[in-house]
Design goal:
There is one protein chain. The chain is globular. The mean pLDDT is about 95. The strands form four sheets. The protein has an eight-stranded parallel sheet with strand order 8-15-16-17-18-19-20-21. It is of the alpha/beta class. Helix 11 links the parallel strand 17 (about 270-280) and strand 18 (about 325-330).
Length: about 525
């Protein structure tokens, strides 16, 4: 726990109000208000931190990311923005020369980036690497393309049927062409096994990056058994870090022992709190489950990721062990199914039952969400990343994509997140997208100004609302009694800081202890 400290001579946003001064002791906020009022409650011997006009806000909460995948992405092949198949081949060849003895894993492609305007297949990858498996994930993580060596290693051949809740891309003659969607991705798990999980030092580096952005708490989603063991080791070995809350992969949760589900590390730093299941895929590979076909592919309306009966049984088993369900649902039809599955558990568990993404919510879906009232964890950054969504859905439906104002106006609990590495880890980008809708170049998945929200309300998605979604209202606030998780910004105005982005983050504190910059990076100036 941190020592007593008095923040003064600046501006503090508690998440509810602006005040002049803040006092913390033993990892908690003890006073917030005018300088004179806080002075009467400052603990004896508290160190004075003079802000020199800077702004303090509650620590940011990313309610949905993938810590192991972020860490693996740092060492895998990044193909975001590669403009053509020819350059993709060159990137693969270069990477293969640098890493001659390993399975090649890459991430970040989407058909819209290529001049060829289509998904690559194994013939493209085979031109670069034929002697070992290559697996390149779509930017959404819900599809991949693999080379012939990976197809052979996974046992896919012409007679192979599509797997349950998945699909194989196929050539004209029916032979698998290397494109894998949803359930088909499970087949390459054994090929990838050597890359899982990341090491504790590599995960610790990701946590340092998160802290440098002002993230003080995060929920890491869809965690498997090997990753859980490594994350528990991380919690015990790394003393200072953002707080971690773990949502296990729903399919493997039943096999976890009580010991594996216990908290680890210092008090409040690490806990296994829930499970994540899937009801559909993503807009990019057209696997998000829609009530009507895609505008640019009239024979497709997405894929249900699991049967309703399987999900209901697994959720009930997990809830019986105190694990809160979180269901991935992007398409409107999937959001309706998620709401139906979560309805028995809303308000019955210690943490809110959650819908992850809730990306497409036309009026009929809004009405059902308002009736059931699950928590919703959204990714505002997708507004900018999915600028091609009009092509997928058409204008009538994109009006109801990422409809944050409409969701909030119905009194629904809405928390922000990144879904990193499937979008940028930077939370400031997400806050800005809530406010501005379109990116600096005017691009947006759904630019309607009717769905914009003011800057303080946008920040709340990543602070107080995040704490509520995690079932921990003492997170994401700087009111007395809250955890002393805070960010010092080199700005006096919140709107200016949001527009400027993560460059304004001066210091990050967790439980009253400064975690960024660390002493090794140099002392802070507060």
């Amino acid at each position: 726990m941190g020592d007593a400290r008095w923040f003064r001579d600046g501006r503090i946003f508690t998440g509810r109000r602006y005040v002049e001064s803040l006092a913390i002791e033993a990892g908690r906020v003890v006073a917030a208000g005018t300088t004179a009022s806080v002075a009467r409650e400052v603990p004896t011997g508290a160190e004075v931190a003079r802000l020199e006009g800077r702004l303090v806000i509650p620590g940011l909460i990313d309610a949905h990311l993938h810590l192991p995948e972020i860490t693996r992405a740092r060492t895998s092949l990044d193909v975001r923005g590669v403009p053509s198949f020819e350059e993709l081949v060159e990137r693969l060849r270069e990477f293969a020369l640098r890493c001659p003895d390993q399975v090649i894993v890459g991430h970040g492609w989407e058909a819209e980036q290529f001049r060829e305007a289509r998904d690559p297949d194994h013939s493209v990858l085979d031109r670069a690497v034929a002697d070992r498996p290559v697996i390149l994930y779509h930017t959404s993580g819900h599809a991949a393309v693999v080379n012939r060596a990976a197809l052979d290693a996974a046992g896919w051949e012409r007679s192979s049927p599509d797997p349950p809740h998945g699909r194989l891309g196929r050539a004209v003659d029916g032979t698998p062409d290397g494109r894998l969607y949803e359930g088909a991705l499970r087949s390459i798990g054994t090929v990838l096994h050597a890359t899982y999980p990341p090491s504790v030092p590599a995960l610790a580096e990701t946590l340092r990056e998160m802290a440098s952005l002002g993230i003080t708490s995060a929920a890491t989603m869809n965690v498997g058994p090997d990753e859980l063991r490594t994350l528990r080791s991380l919690a015990d070995e790394v003393p200072l870090r953002p707080r971690l809350r773990v949502y296990l992969n729903l399919a493997c949760a039943a096999q976890r022992t009580d010991a594996e589900l216990r908290p680890a590390g210092p008090e409040g730093s690490f806990a296994v709190v829930g499970v994540k299941g899937f009801t559909d895929g993503a807009f990019g590979p057209r696997t998000a489950w829609l009530s009507a076909p895609y505008s640019d592919r009239s024979q497709e309306s997405g894929l249900p990721a699991s049967s309703e009966e399987e999900l209901a049984e697994a959720i009930a088993q997990a809830a019986g062990r105190g694990l809160t369900p979180a269901l991935h649902a992007i398409g409107d039809r999937a959001v309706l199914r998620a709401a139906h599955l979560l309805e028995p558990w809303v308000g019955r568990l210690s943490r809110p039952a959650r819908v992850e993404h809730a990306a497409l919510t036309p009026p009929d879906v809004l009405r059902e969400l308002e009736r059931v009232r699950p928590a919703l964890v959204v990714q505002p950054g997708f507004l900018w990343s999915d600028a091609w969504l009009l092509q997928r859905l058409g204008s009538a439906r994109t009006r109801w994509a990422y409809a944050f104002r409409s969701l909030l106006d119905r009194g629904l609990l809405l928390a922000g997140s990144s879904d990193a590495p499937y979008d940028s880890l930077d939370p400031w980008r997400g806050v800005r997208a809530c406010v501005e809708r379109a990116d600096p170049l005017g691009r947006s998945a759904s630019p309607s100004p009717l769905e914009a929200i003011p800057v303080e309300e946008a920040l709340a998605l990543y602070t107080g609302h995040g704490g509520l979604v995690l079932g921990e209202p003492e997170l994401g606030s700087l009111e007395p009694g809250a955890r002393a998780d805070l960010v010092v910004l080199d700005s006096r105005d919140l709107a200016e800081a949001v527009a400027a982005g993560s460059d304004r983050v001066r210091e990050t504190w967790v439980g009253g202890i400064r975690v960024s910059p660390t002493s090794a990076e140099g002392p802070g100036n507060v």
